[in-house]
Write a structure and sequence with these properties.
Length: 424
């Protein structure tokens, strides 16, 4: 289930990232198309219309019926845009539009064109001193043929001839009729560089996205495989950690035992403590912690290498094992700190075990490479019963007791005699 959710989330991320990349590339393409359209119109105006005007002809609104005349620049661009859109129907389409159009087919048609025109009008100036730094308007829409990019950029009055022509045509009866029908103010007069029209570009995105996805499919598969494998490893590790926390007995031996002495470590002690804790509550049994701190090990650490220290600590652990009952549990919880967990034990018995441990340390014979340190031990005892709270609080109580007694208690110089074999 986790893998399925991860795959779905990855799919959504990849799709959204791909869509954003396609949209940005579509915006760049729309800018190129719009600039190409304005360049075509500019070249047509300056190189053809002006040349014909000097020769006594020029551009005319009714050019089809006047010999020697050509379409007006706006009409010419309309024809080019229509032909281009037919040739590249799957890639893009564009047309020149205006609120102040000179033909119904060039008016504002839909919500996007009205919204984008308002965006461009807000950038216009009443008396521009030079070209205006127009910012295009664009957004992604869903149409019958899928998602498309709608893009609009200003097509300002770029020449005096353009301004004069449009100012003159505003008073034409047919133009006045169009303005009144659309509720557009009459008598509009332009200055150079003002907003007079716009180029509206539409780019279908669905086929582009499909092509990009097909091209990037191998990469997506590899990335997905790596992410899923990583997710499985992470989840597996979390599960193991949760199991280890909830049940330390599930840990491998290296995680529950001290590598130097072979005794249980704190994690292993907690596993044993869980069982005793349950019995203390279920059967009202008393158990005991006996904390043992061994002093005098500094000589071994200062003079011996790792092998010497390990041998010495192993001998020390054996001395401790020899002085406790078979049913008791011994653990190493600190560098020089040990704990004996005494089962079914009252306070008097626990104190007896503590005395035996101090005696064992005092008489423990450790000899490695000629190093024979003088050792002694200090102990502290605390009971574990139904009033001890939780396992965690019991461990905290044990650690606190050990620390307090380490600072205040010294080893007995006259320890009692060791247990007999029958006691052990």
């Amino acid at each position: 289930m986790i893998v399925i959710v991860a795959l779905f989330a990855l799919y959504l991320l990849e799709r959204n990232a791909m869509r954003r990349a396609v949209e940005q590339q579509a915006v760049v393409l729309a800018e190129v198309v719009a600039r190409h359209a304005t360049v075509v119109q500019s070249v047509y105006t300056k190189q053809i219309v002006e040349k014909l005007s000097k020769d006594g002809f020029g551009a005319h609104a009714n050019w089809a019926h006047h010999r020697g005349f050509v379409p007006m620049p706006a009409v010419f661009l309309k024809l080019v845009g229509h032909a281009t859109s037919q040739s590249y129907v799957d890639l893009f389409s564009y047309r020149q539009i205006s609120k102040w159009h000179l033909g119904p087919s060039q008016g504002l048609r839909d919500d996007f064109e009205h919204w984008a025109w308002m965006h461009l009008e807000a950038q216009d100036q009443a008396n521009p001193s030079g070209p205006i730094a127009w910012q295009p308007a664009w957004r992604v829409e869903r149409q019958d043929n899928g998602r498309v990019l709608r893009f609009m950029v200003a097509d300002p009055a770029s020449s005096s001839a353009c301004v004069e022509c449009h100012n003159h045509l505003e008073s034409r009866p047919q133009t006045v009729e169009w303005r009144m029908a659309n509720g557009t103010p009459l008598g509009k007069q332009w200055r150079l560089h003002q907003l007079i029209g716009a180029i509206s570009v539409t780019i279908p995105l669905e086929q582009i996205e499909m092509g990009v996805f097909a091209q990037n499919r191998p990469t997506i598969i590899w990335v997905s495989t790596i992410l899923i494998a990583s997710l499985i490893v992470i989840v597996g590790g979390l599960i193991l950690n949760v199991r280890a926390i909830s049940d330390p007995s599930s840990l491998p031996s290296s995680a529950t035992h001290d590598s130097t002495t072979g005794l249980l470590n704190r994690a292993g002690l907690q596993s044993e403590l869980d069982h005793l804790f349950r019995s203390a509550h279920a059967r009202s049994q008393n158990h005991a912690f006996c904390c043992l701190t061994v002093h005098g090990l500094d000589t071994i650490r200062e003079r011996g290498n790792a092998s010497v220290i390990k041998t010495a600590m192993h001998q020390l652990a054996q001395c401790i094992r020899d002085r406790v009952r078979r049913e008791d549990i011994v653990a190493r919880v600190r560098d020089n700190g040990f704990v004996v967990l005494a089962r079914s034990c009252d306070l008097a018995q626990a104190k007896e075990i503590a005395a035996q441990l101090e005696y064992a340390i005092l008489h423990c014979k450790i000899s490695t490479l000629g190093i024979s340190p003088a050792l002694w031990g200090t102990t502290a005892v605390t009971l574990l019963n139904a009033a001890s709270g939780t396992v965690s609080s019991a461990l905290d109580m044990m650690a606190l007791a050990c620390e307090q007694f380490d600072k205040s208690r010294i080893a007995s110089t006259k320890p009692p005699p060791p247990h007999s074999d029958t006691d052990r």
